[in-house]
Design brief:
single chain; 164 residues; mainly beta; 2 domains; six-stranded parallel beta barrel; 15% helix
């Protein structure tokens, strides 16, 4: 009897966690998460190469290469193992990542996350228990391209990088 109530509370807390990212970004709030398109890379799968998806992606298998999601959510699940680069708007890590993570908005490392590499993002959330070994860059590189942005001091316009 009591376990059902606790299970319901946990589910509500999980939805609330996802909503809180939207609220923190100043977006609309509650969404119908069941209606969202999400690709699932299962725990029994192993893949190498480069992948680009136009929807959310959850990785629970072993992936060696670069992953780009043009949708809001790119997630490495608890069983997920990625060696390479992750590019997304909101990147959540619950498993293991070795390489670079580019988050256009937010990168979140959950308590079960193990990350070895560099994180490029505007905002970084590291939960208690997460393991992070590497560097954090919150502005020197453009999260979309991974290339340094140079701007003119006076006009705020892009300038060319000159060797020297």
């Amino acid at each position: 009897m009591f376990d059902k109530d606790r299970s319901k509370d946990r589910k509500e807390n999980q939805v609330q966690e996802e909503v809180s990212v939207d609220e923190a970004r100043g977006t609309s709030g509650r969404q119908d998460f069941a209606a969202r398109c999400v690709s699932y890379f299962g725990p029994g799968m192993q893949l190498s190469g480069d992948v680009t998806v136009a929807e959310g992606l959850v990785i629970e298998g072993a992936f060696d290469g670069n992953v780009t999601s043009t949708d809001e959510n790119l997630t490495v699940g608890k069983k997920g193992r990625v060696k390479g680069e992750l590019h997304g708007i909101v990147v959540s890590v619950r498993g293991r990542v070795e390489g670079k993570i580019y988050g256009d908005e937010v990168v979140r490392l959950y308590p079960t996350a193990v990350v070895d590499g560099t994180v490029y993002c505007k905002r970084l959330i590291i939960d208690d228990g997460a393991t992070f070994n590497g560097n954090i860059d919150m502005g020197a590189e453009d999260a979309d391209t991974g290339k340094a942005k140079l701007t003119s001091v006076d006009a705020g316009e892009p300038v060319s990088k000159v060797a020297g």
